């Protein structure tokens, strides 16, 4: 697939709209590791730095969203048009963040601390369930990078490293 990433001219318009007409981009670096969006570091003429996130199909390395065969009477995988039922869809909204954060924290994953937001408090979680969540997280972090490697994701060694690390964690898992 031929991808067209954001360039200096396009990002200059974003800087102009967001920061005013007196700011110019001196340096532009596309940062590694973005899989659903492009991440760019812009060095400006006043020596300040801005990070720009660009969501576009050209920046998204994930394949088309899938539906499980059990949800489809024909038994074929396909696109889900109902975002409420699409478990592989784009996540947005505080409810999804809260749920994901609670699972990650409970599984022992280090996450940024969110202060003054009481819905993220987690008490009394079942240890067996937490171990299952931890295993699911490791499996996901094997499967996701492998899906990206099926496509044209450029930082292939980075994704292989993530998949290998979490495959070791899965193989070492003891119920």
Features:
three-stranded antiparallel beta sheet; 175 residues; single chain; 3 strands
Protein architecture, described:
The protein has 175 residues and is α+β, with helices and mostly antiparallel strands. It folds into 2 domains: 52 residues; 80 residues, no CATH class. The protein has 4 helices and 3 strands; from the N terminus they run αβββααα. The termini are far apart. About 12% of the residues have low confidence.
Give me a quick take on this structure.
By secondary structure, the chain is α+β, with helices and mostly antiparallel strands. The protein has helices at residues 8-19, 94-106, 127-149, 156-171, and strands spanning 25-30, 38-44, 49-54. Strands 1-2-3 form a three-stranded antiparallel beta sheet, with helices on one face.
| Arithmetic mean of pLDDT | 77
Gap from first CA to last CA? 42 Å
Main β-sheet description: 3 strands, antiparallel
The ordered string of helix (H) and strand (E) elements is HEEEHHH
What is the beta-strand fraction?
A: 5-15%
Shape: elongated
Please compute the radius of gyration using only Cα atoms.
Answer: 20 Å
Total number of strands: 3
Task: Give the low-confidence spans.
Answer: 66-80, 83-88
Number of helices: 4
Percent in helix: 25-40%
Strand line-up in the sheet with most strands: 1-2-3
Determine the structural class based on helices, strands and strand pairing: alpha+beta
> What count of domains describes the coordinates?
2
């Amino acid at each position: 697939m031929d991808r067209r990433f954001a360039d200096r001219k396009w990002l200059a318009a974003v800087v102009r709209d967001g920061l005013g007409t007196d700011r110019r981009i001196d340096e532009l670096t596309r940062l590694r590791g973005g899989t659903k969006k492009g991440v760019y570091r812009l060095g400006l003429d006043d020596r300040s730095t801005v990070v720009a996130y660009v969501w576009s199909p050209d920046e998204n390395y994930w394949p088309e969203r899938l539906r499980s065969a059990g949800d489809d009477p024909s038994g074929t995988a396909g696109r889900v048009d109902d975002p409420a039922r699409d478990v592989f869809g784009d996540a947005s909204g505080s409810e999804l963040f809260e749920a994901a954060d609670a699972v990650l924290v409970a599984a022992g994953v280090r996450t940024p601390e969110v202060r003054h937001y009481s819905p993220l408090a987690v008490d009394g979680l079942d240890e067996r369930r937490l171990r299952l969540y931890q295993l699911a997280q490791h499996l996901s972090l094997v499967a996701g990078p492998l899906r990206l490697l099926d496509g044209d994701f450029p930082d292939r060694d980075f994704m292989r490293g993530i998949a290998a690390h979490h495959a070791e964690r899965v193989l070492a898992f003891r119920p």
